[in-house]
């Protein structure tokens, strides 16, 4: 930015200068101004950039170090944050801005309170609206007496052209340091000044000027022409022009241009600077110039490279792309559009992952990561999404692009479309894999036969494997195939081969048996084809496959048996299978599904709608949701309730799987299992768990259970209380560390838990001390028991804690009290004896004396052996040995010799102790077991009786051990075992019983051993006299299982007969339910016809009415259900041609033609044959009225006669239809009467409301008028006298002032009274009291006026009124409810009054409406406010908005809107009903809105409407006509 010596440059006058746009220059150093940034960052002195208000905008590292803050903490602060309290920052700031530059010394206080002494230089407008502040820390030398020298002189850096230049010796140390610093910066830092006469010079330029321009800096300090002479002639005009524009506009200058260096080189430079106008009219630029020659060379080389690159890729058939390191496209070649359909904008700056197939994305991402590691990717194949929405295969090579420093900047890729080739490769590979997989997985072998030489070649080892040979064994050709075929299968095999050779079959296929290596036979399926013929049309080459179908043959034979077993298993397990066609919704059920749903398997499956009715009403929505999920392709497994025809509710489990076709669900299939017993058991289990929780919470001990890692799974309330918690859930998931007082205590508890779980032994009643938070200690008794899962593995631990501090203290006290111990000793019901080691009695309690018959004194003379019979000597020796080795003996039983000579059976247990004298003693506890022995004898007698009872039971009995081996039996006189006892005793049941009986028996034995519950099993056996039914019951008998088997054939037959009866009853109930499901007569008749048609399987069923009042009498068919191939019977038929039919139906007799062909009723026979019926029946029905109807039906088939049970059912149905018809008639009559009563009741209510409201308002109006009159008189008196009172007060106060003026020193008594009454305060406060009284009286007058306006007793006729006055009067009355009080906030009232004309209306009635609506709005706001929690109340402000406007020339609208609680749909439906209210009893009559509705609609012929949203608010709108 150097100008020629003479340039005509005229600075605009000050008034025309444009202020510098602070937004055009960044407040910090520009980001491309790298030299200044480097200088700013490397400076040793603290440097800060500040704005016009003194706030820091930027700071270099030295400033952050000086002030002790990070840059982000420093930004936004000011110098006053660090100066001492005595420093006048504001004054210094204004002086500095006025002078432009200032230097001084100041003390700074850092955030850590360290005081630093600094010199500072401040330069105003260093940049536009930004200022430079430089600090130097002189804390170490602050004692120097010389004044502080500025870091930069307080004048221009360089002199003007007329002044001599400073020598190096005259330069300040600071300027010298600055020059030394800039010498090492690349480029030129300069100060350039342009004078008004066009002269220019460089007050300052760094040494970089010499390198770039070949000019010494000191040569241009007076004239800058030499620098401008170096500018390239082609660039000089542009340089000078941009400088002039920058100086004229005072905007930053930025320019790139060339320099002609004296050494002949052309140098490209980039210059930028900021201009500043000087007071004398010159302009100074502060800027920086840097050499960009290499950058320009690289740009030119890059342009040439890019040109070649683009020419190359534009002519490639492949797609070329560049991907940045973040995975987004930065370039795509034009080929992308022709191959994939994408234009540049579709892909640029988008991630490649967006178009890669999800299954291939992982390999592509891995390849991309490897390429970023400078690995070349070759032949990467993947699928890509084209613009048409389909994926196609591409192959790609990828390499990296590096910058000049060798860093990866992007990846270059070339992609090729290979979809057709890839599809072919995939198809071939998949075909080969499928063939090989099919052969290997199906065990299929391949073979080839030469028909000329009869040589057979097998291509794989499947044939050897089929024959039982190893792969390495060699089979003789003679025995390879033909000679191994079973003799019975050779002839059919040759016949099939002959047919194929003759061309009768395209493919040869034959199944035959083949002898294997071990001599056994297997079934072989051979499929082949002759593929080569010789010239004479003789077969040459015969190839094919073979597979082992032995299992299939066996399966085919077992299929029938398996099907039968499956049906039986479903019946036993109450498990049925079903399917549904999604398109037609046709259901298909197994027999067990019918039984589960309480239906007969002979019945047809219901429709889907009918089937939905079979589920519990509360579960139908749940079922439909599951069906919707299934239709979306989600398999289902859920439990649901069904409602059987007899009303019984049962539980079933439904599992559903899906069949897809073309990605659409076409069929659902699954199973239904009756789980009623399981569901009830689960309910009982839940109740048991709740009971257990109640018991645990009732325990006084603290109980907690944990998992194997000592993590809390649950606890009782005592544990919660002990550890100061609020609920058991608070402790779930915690460990001992969370509520122990110390880590050592937690470690102790965990180790204890670990020991119990690892040893699988409980820790019982461990007594230890624990420390409380207050430092005290308690005694705690702990019991820890391991928990086991169903497999017996330890899964956790349960711990029981009890504070036994009081018990320990009591025990300590007990030990100190010998008297208490003696009392316990004497009162113990068991005998307690103390012997020495020789057996002499030392102590004995009363129970021991009673047991032996000796007193203590007598016992002291005896020995233990004196009471022991001799036959116990050997047993006594054993117990004494046990006492010597373990210190204990017993418990064991013996007899004592009583003093009276008889023997007393006893049980003893003893403990050896060491006395205080060092001797050995034995404490023994003796229990009298006389009664126990008697009970044992009674038990033996009972067992004998039980054995006799078992012998008397006629059932067969068997006993099994845990291994399912027969160990005992008892035969039954009524039935014999299938196998003689000697053949099954000691044998496993699987070796004796048939499989169908052994398997369930074994399972029930296992279930009995597992659950300890009795199991029941019923089965059938085919005996010589027919099929017999048996019942087996299994019960636990010690370690074995006891089974009782009883024949129940007679019971089963009785149940079958009962089931048939039940089925017919259920059918009748079902049909009756269908008929009587409605009270509509047409629906009843149609339901009856439909039910009979479905249940009796007739081809047509109709309902008729007999009309005797016509001539001739007629039968009218009104409802029918029929087979589509029959014509409709609907219509009327004269009865004069059917005398026999009429004879039967008039007295109510059933009439039938069974079959039609054999009937003697020729007219009816001819009609039936014409209608296509084989059998005919009519059942007359006499209703309770005068009408007679009937059910008419028929079947096409003549071989299906009417059965007795069908006729009986029809009679029952006829009765039900007659009852239903009678009920429908009664319902229609009651409906008519009910409507009349409702209309009368509504009219009565309206009349009652009007009477009550009229009386109430009349009384209210009189009361209000009386109150207003009585209040108005005294208030007028008060208000009228207040004016005089105010004047009198002024006079008196003025008189006092005059007295004080002329008598400033009153007597002492007056002075004391003046102080007592606080005369000064009284003088200032008394006028305020008078004004307050005026305001109160005025308020009372307004209220009285509002009451009079509201009542309007004198305006009972229609009059033109101002509705705004009525609204304001109502608001005045409600002011107390609106203004708020205490903590209840004010309700805001917003008025949007329009310009309404006077409206002719009943003013007092409208006031009632306004009062009701406004009261409801206030109460709705209060109700919503009360629904908020206390912390949210501050966010809610109640608001009522009143809006009035003219709708058109004939109507006005008054709208009252609130933001209260709002109303739900149910309340809105009943809002205007008389006596309907949502308020509590005693708080509302329910007549307000009903009355308001009548006033608006009936009295004023207007409209009252509303809209409300629950939780938002309500709006009422009144529309009144203008007259």
Automatic annotation (TrEMBL):
First-tier enzyme category under EC: transferase
Gene3D superfamilies in UniProt: 1.10.287.130, 2.10.70.100, 3.30.450.40, Histidine kinase-like ATPase, C-terminal domain, PAS domain
EC number of this enzyme: 2.7.13.3
SMART domains linked to this entry: GAF, HATPase_c, HisKA, PAC, PAS
Record-given protein name: histidine kinase
Signal sequence coordinates: none
Annotated Pfam families: GAF, HATPase_c, PAS_3, PAS_4, PAS_9
Catalytic reactions of this protein: ATP + protein L-histidine = ADP + protein N-phospho-L-histidine
Annotated ranges, domain PAS: 32-85, 305-375, 431-504, 817-859
UniProt xrefs under InterPro entries: GAF (IPR003018), GAF-like_dom_sf (IPR029016), HATPase_C_sf (IPR036890), HATPase_dom (IPR003594), His_kinase_dom (IPR005467), HisK_dim/P_dom (IPR003661), HisK_dim/P_sf (IPR036097), PAC (IPR001610)
Assigned keywords, A-Z: Coiled coil, Kinase, Phosphoprotein, Transferase, Two-component regulatory system
Domain PAC: 253-304, 378-430, 508-561, 636-687, 764-816, 890-941
Coiled coil, from the record: 1227-1257
Naturally occurring in which organism (per UniProt): Laspinema palackyanum D2a
Residues of the Histidine kinase domain: 1266-1523
Region (Disordered): 146-172
